[in-house]
Specification:
Strand content: 5-15%
Helix content: 25-40%
Length: 76
């Protein structure tokens, strides 16, 4: 029930497309799905998406601390 999936590759290799495709297949009604993105490329229904904005103090580190307080089932 626990694990991690890493999606890696160079720019333009389809990482975002792969991740968004996977998120669309998840039944987010029963799961707490949260994302931290820079930038948010696609809006997804039923998923809480957060835009990273370092100028306003929202870094990936601070965003992750915030996300972990929300009892997530899935983090992207």
């Amino acid at each position: 029930d626990h694990g991690m999936i890493l999606v890696t590759g160079p720019t333009g290799s389809g990482k975002s497309t792969t991740l968004y495709g996977a998120l669309q297949e998840i039944d987010s009604v029963d799961l707490n799905v949260l994302t931290l993105e820079d930038p948010i490329e696609y809006q997804l229904d039923g998923i809480s998406q957060t835009q990273i904005n370092e100028k306003k103090g929202m870094t990936f580190a601070s965003g992750m601390r915030s996300v972990l307080r929300q009892d997530p089932d899935i983090i992207m």
